[in-house]
Every structure is written in structure tokens, then in C-alpha cells.
Amino acid sequence: MTPANKRDLLPGTLDMLILGTLAVQSMHGYGIAQHIQRLSRDVLRIEEGSLYPALQRMRQKGWIKAQWGQTPNNQRARYYTITPLGQRQLGLQEAGFAELLDAIGRVMRPA
Amino acid sequence: MREWLARIVDWFRRDRLDAELREELEFHRAQLERDTHAGDDAVEARWAARRRFGNVTRVREESRDRWSVPWLDHLQQDIRYAMRGLRRSPGFTLGAIVTLGLGIGANAAMFGVIDRLMLRPHAYLRDAGRVHRVYLQYKEQDRQITRESIEYTRYLDLRRWTTSFSATAAYAHGAQAIGTGEAARERPIAAVSASFFGFFDARPALGRFFLAAEDTTPVGASVAVLDYGFWKSDFGGRNVLGEPIQVGNITATIVGVAPRGFTGVAEDEAPAVYVPITAYAGNLPGEDGKSYFIHYYWGWMNMMVRRKADVSVAAANADLTNAYARSWNAERGENRSLEAVSEARPRAVASSLRSAAGPDPGLEARTLVWVSGVAVVVLLIACANVANLFLARALRRRRELALRVALGVSRRRLVAQSFTETIVLSLFGFAAGLAVAQWGGAVLRRLFIGETGPTDVVTDGRTLVVALLAALGAALLTGLAPVFFGVRADVASALKSGPREGSYQRSRARGALLVAQGALSMVLLVGAGLFVRSLEHVREKRMGFDADRLLIVRRNLRGADMSDSAQARLGRQLLATAQNIPGVESAAWISSVPFWTTSAVGVFVPGVPSTRGLGLMTYQQGSTDYFRTMGTRILRGRGFTNDDRATSPRVAVVSESMARVLWPDANPIGQCMRVGADTMPCTTVVGVAEDVAHVSLAEDAPNRYYVPIEQFRPAAGYAVMLRMRGDPSASAERVRAALQSVMPGQTYVTVRPLSAVVNGERRSWRVGATMFVAFGVLALVVAAVGLYGVVAYNVAQRMQELGVRVALGAQTRDVVRLVVGQGVRFAVAGVTLGTVLALLAARWVQPLLFAQSATDVRVFGTVGGVLVLVAIVASGLPARRATRVDPNTVLRAD
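Output (C-alpha cells, whole complex):
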């Protein structure tokens, strides 16, 4: 993995990615990072230094809940679950993001 | 908002969150190690993972930011800092807490009383802001009279002729014997119109309230609603609907129970039973019960109204006044001697349900308001004192503060710290104040409300809020002082100067605080002096009788319909029995009890065109020994004798004032007066008695006359006055038992020492004197301590200078004069300012005083002298220390 493959995230998309990931199922922090990395084929690499502060912030905003649980390997890990408030937030962010992509597309490929 | 709440919650459990995060990161790294380089060299894997993972500390710190709330951190630091500071100087802390506690406690306790008497809305009352009691006002001989009680007929008039109100109700409170036989007890009851309960959002705990059909003239239905507490205590809370209950002379059927905590609009004790007002009045024996809704002579009840939402109080009053004028004319139709509307100017006013907050609050309520003001002043003095202490400390710490500013502590933080300190102190003061209020409140309530129940300061939300506000206000006031005068210190000069150089500075602020304290103390002590003198005057005042060894016996017929002759017979029998009770020196049968009831009938005197305008003429009926029993002196002529019988020529004794008013130039003895109408036969004046206080202690010229009860209306003689040989309270029960044996059927007697009634009359002055003295002395002590503190501080700061003076040849006398002079100057300034304030307030205090000028030079002089004397003592102690200055030591130090 070379730094060249890494793409910086657009500002504000981290929350959306995390919420989108948690909308699938509850996960621990490591799982979230892995999930995003895997689905983006290693393009999106979540810095742990931004993941955990972001999780705390979203928990305080009431978008996600944190709960300690057991991994399949019987290890203790903190699992995050999306809340109804988080679902609504995800919807808003997705809509906003789609609009943004659309706008960028129109600028880059004028009809 | 929600996020902030979460952050604050997280702040409180930040230690746990830290630990959890550490575990989470630990887990993350372990997973990374396992996944990235499974199979590789373990050491290599760990390092690789650690590299990938980045700076753990940074992650932790950034996450931790999410639960660090900077101002909470600061607050916590400040509180710790404040607590440490307070612990370091326990004397200062204790002094400040006690001072603030007394101030806050005094205010909380006073508020508790004021709230009970004036402010607190009645339980369940809906939309209390639009509910009023109707008061009647009119002029009588240039005096403005305010009446709370009105006639039922008037109530009907006002209801009929006004449009401003969506509801009206009539109510009356009284005491009636409830129950039958041995179980009968005199209890407070309320007679209310059916509309009364509609003012409240109350649903009966059982059954129902009154129906309109049960409240009709002439006689309402015999139904009753029980008080919740009474129902629980006397009926065990069982289903009582349909059961009979004896209320006075009414045998009523219980139809409902009021909900828990419902007291109607009672000012003190909740009524035990409610009956329809027309049932109460209509069942009264005699004329009252037949004509209460037709005539205007019997004002016995109160009227409450609910103002329509779109009608202002002023408009409602105008409406009421119009209706009252109409009603006044209607009354004039049946009583020609009533003044015309243009003369009497009747006004009806919708005002507070609580009479203490109504248009004529009475002496006690007004005294109470003043005493509350005094409590506020005491708190102000306490604040000034604590501010002064803080200031002294701030000045002492000038260099420390300057150093901190120099080191980069922001001034805002310093101010915040200083405020935190005062707030912490005030909260301790608040706690101390609650203790003071809990204890003091009981004393105050006994004094003002005459209630001995347990106080509930600590559980009473309203009082708690007021105490807390007082504490925060005090914190603000005391905190402002160091902010304004302490932190302003110029960093450079403060740091440059050594402890010696420039360290003695007169502080204007501290001086001003001292003068303010002195002035406020002066005002309070002048108030104390005036009230104490008033109380002395009240005590010294000759009431025209000698209350000490008198017992009043009142008979209560429970509304039994007894003929006049039977009532007269009972009166004679009671008198004869009383005269034979051992220990009774003499007894008299009377028709009105001092300060309780009074009767007046017009008097017609040949040669005097109209006695109207000469003042109200009240009368008393008495049996032969009346004057001897009361201890009222006969100044001229004679009192009554056994020869003044029903059949003998009518005689009367008049009071000195009345004699002077009616026959200013002639000998009153032998004059003729006609009582009741000018067609009545002559009643011959046979004696002149000294003036007595009967309606109130403050009466100046009581026109009063006495007639033998057997010649007048013996049936009205409802009381017997007994002069005992010993302590009347001790024999009260024995007397009651002896006289009760004469009473027929359900009727009974009550016995009370007259001195209790008189003490009640003196209460407002006693309360004023007690409270002003207590608060005044408190203020004086606090101010004296403050003065001592300032002077002592100044002396300590001036040691250097004093040393130089002594070295240059100053004598002890000079040093003392220097130091004490400073204290005295503060005191004199305070006394001067206080005198001005007290003179300004004099106009308002005057009506509360008894035969005492509010600008009495002696009181002002004495108080001023005391203050200066206290100042001399308070500054004398530091002065003594100053005289011991050893120039050798002081000048070499530092």
C-alpha cells in the first residue's frame, strides 16, 4: 500500500461513512475502519486518529450508541449502534452528498 | 443543547470514559497486529502495527477533548481554589458565613411570614390574578373607613348591578360548635355561597359541592361539605355521604368532602365544615335570620369576584363603585340618618383576597412589611461587612494578584475566581441561613401569625427560592467589591513596591462601605428606639380599666331560639353563679367585651342640634358592680347601684370625653340624654367615668356611655366579666366548669383572661419593637465588627508610619487620637447619613407608632451617641496596639 493510493476524504464525509457502515450492522471501531477500507478497495483509509474522536462526537450528538460486547473470539470490544436520530442524520447527509456530487459532475463535464 | 448536556454528563464520568477509550484502542491495535502481519515475526508485527496506528497519545487526547468542558474544568479549579482559600483563614470564613447566614436567614424567615399573610395564592384557586375580594370604603366625619365585611343584601346588590365579573361568591368564616353532646367542639367553619367552589379547580374527594338550589334565600338547604383533614381525623375517612352532622343549630346532611389541602380562602386555620351561606344565615334565631337578605344593618360576610378577562381592575372598581352608590341609596331609603352619597363618597374596591394585602392592611401587616425591609437592610449590612473583609484580603494580596496577572492569568479568570469564592461563601451562608430561618421562622410565625405549628422552611419551595436568591444577591454584592477595587491594581507598581513602600493606602471603597454600614445601623436603631418607646407608651397608657386580673366569660347559645326573657334570666343566673365562685372578687354582666364587640346607638341631647359629627358614641351595658369589676374610675357623680332597676328612672354614666363634647360648659351630672330616638324618655346622667379604650388602644377621644343592663336590653348581655383575687389563668378552667353547669342544653361558655385580648391588641407594637431591636442590635454588632476590622487593618498597615511618629516624639495620647479619630470620623459620617435617611423614612413610619414622634430628638441623639461610643470602643482596641509600637523594631523590620 503506497501513499499514492490513499485519497483524502472530502470534509464531512467521515460521519456519513461511519453512519452508513453502522446502518448495515453494529460494529466496533476496528470493524468500522476495516469495513470502509474493504468496501472502498483500500482507497479510503480511516485514520484511527480521526475515527475515535469522531465516534465520541457522534455519540454525544446522539446519533450512535456505544455498548460493550463480546467479539466472536470472545474479546471485549465496544460496539456502536446507529440510533433513529442517526438514521435521520444519515438520510440528510446522503441527500446533501448526492447533491454535491451532482453539482461537481455538472461543472467537470458540462453538457 | 442535547450535545452539551451529553458533554456535561460525560465530563462527570470522564475518568471512566478515559479508561474505556484506552481499552478500545488497545483492542484496535491488537486486531491490527493480528490482521496485518499474521505469521510474521511477532516483534516486527507489533512495531508495524504501532507505526500504522500512529500516535496513540494524540488519539487519546483528541477523543478526550470530547468530554473535557473547559469552563467546567475552570469552575472545578476555582471551587477547589476557593475552598482552599476559605480553609486557610477559618476566622474570616466563619465570620463571613455567620454574618451572611444571619442576613439570609432573617430574610427567608420574614419572607415565609409575608408569603403566608399576603402573597401565596390559595390552594386550587384558578387564575388567582383575576380573583379579588371586595372592600367597601366611605367617609365618616372626614375619616376614610375601609370595611372588609359586607351585608348579604349588599352582596346581592353588587352582584346584580355590576357587569365586570364572570363570577361572584359570598363567604363568611366563624366558629361553631360541631357535633352533639359531649363530643361537641367549637371549630372554625365557613358559610359559603354555592358559587364559591366554582372559583377553584377542586374536585370533591367524595360526593359533591353545593348546588345552586341549595343556596337560596330565605333559608338554604341543610347540607354540609367536610374539610379533608377533619374528615380524616373525625370520621376516619369513611364514606360519610348522607350522614347527619350538627353545625351550630343546623342539623346538616353531609353531601361531600373537599379535596386534600383545600382551605377555601381561609386566612389561617382551614374550616372544618362548609355550609351554604343562606342555610347558616337563614337558620339564625331572631330578626337576623329573617331579614339578612333584605336589610343593610348586618355586615358579616365577605364577597369575592372573578374579573372578566377583558376588564381592567380600574374598570371593575368603577363598576363596583357605581353599584355601591346605588346600593347606598337603597340603604338610605330605609335608614334616613345615613349620609348622602355625595357626602360619604362610597367606593367599592376589588383587591387582594388576603386582607393583609388589601387596601387597609392593618397595623400588624404594615409593621410586618417594615420589618421585612429591615431584614433586607440587615442583609445589606452583612454584605457590606463581608465585602469589606474580602476587600481587606484583596488589598493584602495585591502583590500576589499582580504577580499572577504578570504570569499570564487573565483578569477574567481572576474575576471568576473572586466570584466563585463569594458564591461558595454565600452558599454556605445559605445553608446557615436555612438553619436560622428554620428556627427563627418558628419564632416569627408565633409572633406574627400566632401559630405554633411546625415550620417547613426547608421543604417550602417558595421560601427556598427566596433564600437562594438572597444568597446569590449577597454573592454578587460582596463579589463586586474585590472585582472593582482589588484586581485593578497596577501590575508594575504593585510588583515594584516592597511590602513597605506604599502599602498603607486609604481605601475609599472600604471607607464608603463602613459609612454605609454605619448609616444603615443608625436607621435600624432609630427604628428600634422609636418602636421601643411606642411599646412603652402603649404599656403605660391607662386603658381605663385594669386588665390584669379579669376573666371574660362568653356564653354561646349555638343559635338556640331562646326568648329575650329567657336570655335575660340566663344572664342573671350566670352572674349570680359567678359571684359565688370562690376567688371571684366581683363580677359584672355586660353586653360588649373590649376590643371584641362594640355597640353604638344614636344619642339625642336637648340643646345639641345633632350629635352626628361629634364622633361615634358607643355604649356598654353593665350590672351594678361594673365599674368596680373593670377598675374604671368614676371621676364625678356615681356609678350604678342596686337601686338602678328596670323599673326605676333611667340613668347613665358618660365618659369624660363624651361629657366634654356634649356639655362643654355645663355640669354633665343631671343632664338628660335620649338614647335611640328623640322620642325616648330622658336618661339622666348620674356620673362621669374616665375614658377607656374599647375599640382599639389607639383611640384618642372615646365617646362612651354606660347604662344599667336591667334598664336596657338584658338579652344582649352575652358576657360576664370576673375580677379574680389571684392569677386569672389559673382559675379559668374552674370558673368555666362552674358556669357551664348553669348552661342549658347544647349551650356553652368560653373563658379567657382579658389580658390575652389586650396583649393581642398590643402585638403590632411589641412585634415592631422586638424585631427592630433584634435586627438593630444585629446590625450594630456586624457594623462594629466591620469597623474594628478596618481600623485594625489600617493600624497594622501603618505600623511603619506610627513608628516614625513615635520616634519623632509622638505621645501615646497622640497615637490613640490618630487611630480612634479615624474610627469616630467613620461613625460620625454614618450617623449623619443615617439621620438623613431616618428623617426621610419618618413620614411613613409615623402611623405605626403609638404616641411617639418619628423624629424624636432624644431617640436620634441616643442612637447617634451609642454608635459613636461603639466606634470608639471598636477602634480603641487597635489603638491600644498602636500605642505599643516600638519604633526600634518597626523601623528596622523589612
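The longest strand of chain A covers residues 64-70.
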